[in-house]
């Protein structure tokens, strides 16, 4: 018979490997680690230091050497189905194949074997048939309370036989057949046994972990488990209704109409807040949530995971999705389960017909049920909240008004909070946007209306999302009525056009006069998207006198230089990474970069960033930028803008500049030339 081609053979082997269950994959990894130890049929096992808990090792655990955050030691044991032979390495011999009763004695479940004898189960599991028994380990039986154990082994009832038959299935079931979320009919009144087979290789039976699986017998298979399992006939809802410590939860579930869900078929995990958990919440907050059907439903759905998660399956951190659509970090620390890193689970693995319950002693309030002030308590914006509170704006952040809060992070106020006055209150009102927004739906050029009746623009960049000069510093938090945007600085709403802003700032009086002389006033007054690198009076003063005179005397050259300082797109400082190139209105490129938290333009440091205007943004620079390749310019005899009165007014606004002995002659020449041309 011809052999299949090698590629097809490899593909078949790959598919066979891919079809292995998670348990078998982890077992295979443990076997490979044992083989590296040099012995046949030896599996590497990780044991939690200070306990008897052992796990077959997966790749991640092998390198971390930790389970539930606790250190482990590696030991080497016979893989399931093999045993040692005196004088030989490893575990070369397969276990002798015998009936289930005999097999129990050699796989670490001698107590189950003993109780099978006492309960008269022995003849059945010695005889013909095909059974599966989930056999509690010796330690599992020893961990039962004396009262429970006494009730099982009493001679006056058949509880022990019933308990053992509940651990059995009337067919052979291997780990590959133990599918996640399925049930098997037990041999005790066909009551279901709940199976969970997790991606990390852990298999549980009614939340008891399989320790050693797939021990073959002549009449079936034996799986050793770490607990004695009990029957369950109650749904999650029924347990809530009968458990005294869940009285408040019971009322909340009824008020939110979740009863039918928690009674229905499915596999859920309920993180059930106890009465104590509800009592820890401020009364005002609790009453608000209980009186708001939508917030209450979100709260309860935040405590329900979409799949059943037994505690034994958690050996490292997992992110689990809730019915509310959010996620919780479910983990463990030694013997304790944790939620979002906190050991708040008081009682675990209460099994129900439709899932599992873990009792928690703290209420998990989702963002969707919180006010803006409550959202801020877990964010780096607490100082902003103090500022809003001092300004008397709390009502906007705690009520049912749909708003979005732009809250500067605490680092913005490292030198202390600003004084609260009417101007600061107005500014803070412009940090509250009408409507509840989500950052993922914002788009470039979008206009937002604030409670202070200002219009804010949205800028979308490759590396940032900004609203005016303030860029979003963290993922937004969406509360019941409001959304929190943490931003990297105090927002400065625009207060006029580029020309309006320049005229209002005495530092730019020379620039204003030059713009008017060069005929660019109308350009910088019109609607647009400009970035202006504005030379200060100091920048013009720093130029050689002859060069300054020549520049101010040539309208065309002056316009060319000024256009080199303007780009026709808005670039705020938060969008500047290592290097951003802009095309100037003159045609040459401008290079904007960030060095040591200072913006540089063509390698010159910027004196002040993000001076916002309705049609752009201004950067103050203390030098006049020169195009990289200067072009010969014709001398212009006429000023580009004949508006003499505007220039006179602009000059008069800067008494400081006129008193400067270097700048005064420049003004005089410009005025004389404009008068001559007008005459």
Describe it for me?
It holds the Pfam family Fasciclin. Keywords: Cell adhesion, Disulfide bond, Extracellular matrix, Gamma-carboxyglutamic acid, Phosphoprotein, Repeat, Secreted, Signal. With 679 residues, the chain is of the alpha+beta class. The protein has five domains: 22-93, no CATH class; 97-225, FAS1 domain, CATH 2.30.180; 236-364, Roll (FAS1 domain), CATH 2.30.180.10; 370-487, FAS1 domain, CATH 2.30.180; 498-621, FAS1 domain (Roll). It is built from 28 helices and 35 strands. The strands form eight sheets. Strands 8-7-13-12-11-10-9 form a seven-stranded mixed sheet. A seven-stranded mixed sheet has the order 30-29-35-34-33-32-31. A four-stranded antiparallel sheet has the order 2-1-4-3. A hairpin with a 5-residue loop joins strand 23 (447-449) and strand 24 (455-460). Helix 4 (100-106) packs antiparallel against helix 5, helix 21 (509-517) runs antiparallel to helix 26 and helix 26 runs antiparallel to helix 28 (663-678). The N and C termini lie far apart (111 Å).
Task: Give the structure's gist in a few sentences.
This protein has 679 residues and is an alpha+beta fold. Strand 16 (318-321) and strand 17 (327-333) form a beta hairpin.
CATH architect. name of the largest domain:
Roll
- What's the pLDDT, averaged over the residues? 88
The CATH superfamily label of the largest domain reads: FAS1 domain
Number of helices: 28
Give the structural class.
Answer: alpha+beta
Number of strands: 35
Domain FAS1: 97-229, 233-364, 368-491, 495-625
Function: Plays a role in cell adhesion. May play a role in cell-collagen interactions.
Domain EMI: 39-93
Keywords: Cell adhesion, Disulfide bond, Extracellular matrix, Gamma-carboxyglutamic acid, Phosphoprotein, Repeat, Secreted, Signal
């Amino acid at each position: 018979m011809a052999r299949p081609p090698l590629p097809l053979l490899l593909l078949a082997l790959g598919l066979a490997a891919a079809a292995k269950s998670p348990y078998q994959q982890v077992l295979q990894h443990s076997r490979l680690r044992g083989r590296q130890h040099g012995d046949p049929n030896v599996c590497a096992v990780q044991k939690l230091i200070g306990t008897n808990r052992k796990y077959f090792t997966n790749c991640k655990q092998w390198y971390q050497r930790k389970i539930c955050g606790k250190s482990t030691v590696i030991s080497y044991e016979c893989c399931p189905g093999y045993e040692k032979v005196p004088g030989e390495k490893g575990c070369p011999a397969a276990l002798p194949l015998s009936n289930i009763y005999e097999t129990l004695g050699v796989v670490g479940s001698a107590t189950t074997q003993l109780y099978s004898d006492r309960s008269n189960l022995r003849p059945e599991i010695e005889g013909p048939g095909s059974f599966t028994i989930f056999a509690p380990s010796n330690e599992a039986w020893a961990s039962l309370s004396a009262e429970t154990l006494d009730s099982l082994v009493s001679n006056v009832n058949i509880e022990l036989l019933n308990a053992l038959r509940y651990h059995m299935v009337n067919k052979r079931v291997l780990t590959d057949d133990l599918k996640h979320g399925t049930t098997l009919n037990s041999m005790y009144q066909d009551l279901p046994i709940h199976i969970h087979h997790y991606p990390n290789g852990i298999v549980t039976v009614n939340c008891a972990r399989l320790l050693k699986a797939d021990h073959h017998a002549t009449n079936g298979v034996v799986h050793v488990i770490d607990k004695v399992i009990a029957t369950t006939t109650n749904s999650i809802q029924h347990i809530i209704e009968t458990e005294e410590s869940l009285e408040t939860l019971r009322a909340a579930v009824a008020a939110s109409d979740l009863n039918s869900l928690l009674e229905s078929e499915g596999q859920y995990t309920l993180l059930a807040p106890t009465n104590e958990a509800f009592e820890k919440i401020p009364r005002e907050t609790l009453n608000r949530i209980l009186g708001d059907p939508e917030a209450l439903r979100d709260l309860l759905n935040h405590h329900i995971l979409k799949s059943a998660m037994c505690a034994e399956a958690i050996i490292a951190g997992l992110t689990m999705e809730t019915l509310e659509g959010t996620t919780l970090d479910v983990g463990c620390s030694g013997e304790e389960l944790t939620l979002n890193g906190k050991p708040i689970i008081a009682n675990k693995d209460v099994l129900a017909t439709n899932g599992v319950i873990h009792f928690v002693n703290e209420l998990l309030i989702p963002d969707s049920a919180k006010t803006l002030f409550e959202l801020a308590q877990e964010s780096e914006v607490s100082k902003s909240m103090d500022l809003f509170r001092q300004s008397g704006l709390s009502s906007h952040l705690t009520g049912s008004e749909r708003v979005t809060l732009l809250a500067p992070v605490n680092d913005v106020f490292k030198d202390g909070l600003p004084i609260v006055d009417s101007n600061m209150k107005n500014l803070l009102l412009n940090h509250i946007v009408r409507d509840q927004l989500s950052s993922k739906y914002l788009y470039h050029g979008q206009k937002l209306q604030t409670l202070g009746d200002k219009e804010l623009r949205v800028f979308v960049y490759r590396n940032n999302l900004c609203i005016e000069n303030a860029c979003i510093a963290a993922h937004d938090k969406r509360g019941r009525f409001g959304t929190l945007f943490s931003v990297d600085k105090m927002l400065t709403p625009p207060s006029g056009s580029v020309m309006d802003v320049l005229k209002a700032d005495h530092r730019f009086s020379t620039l204003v006069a030059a713009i008017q002389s060069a005929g660019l006033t109308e350009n910088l007054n019109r609607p647009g998207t400009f970035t202006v690198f504005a030379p200060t009076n100091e920048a013009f003063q720093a130029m050689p006198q002859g060069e300054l005179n020549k520049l101010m005397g040539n309208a065309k050259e002056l316009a060319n230089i000024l256009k080199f300082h303007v780009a026709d797109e808005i670039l705020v400082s938060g969008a500047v990474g290592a290097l951003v190139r802009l095309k100037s209105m003159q045609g040459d490129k401008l290079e904007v970069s960030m060095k040591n938290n200072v913006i540089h333009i063509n390698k010159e440091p910027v004196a002040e960033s993000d001076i916002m205007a309705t049609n752009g943004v201004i950067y103050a620079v203390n030098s006049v930028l020169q195009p990289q390749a200067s072009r010969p310019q014709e001398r212009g005899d006429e000023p580009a803008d004949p508006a003499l009165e505007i220039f006179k007014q602009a000059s008069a606004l800067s008494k400081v500049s006129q008193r400067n002995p270097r700048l005064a002659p420049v003004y005089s020449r410009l005025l004389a030339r404009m008068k001559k041309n007008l005459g």
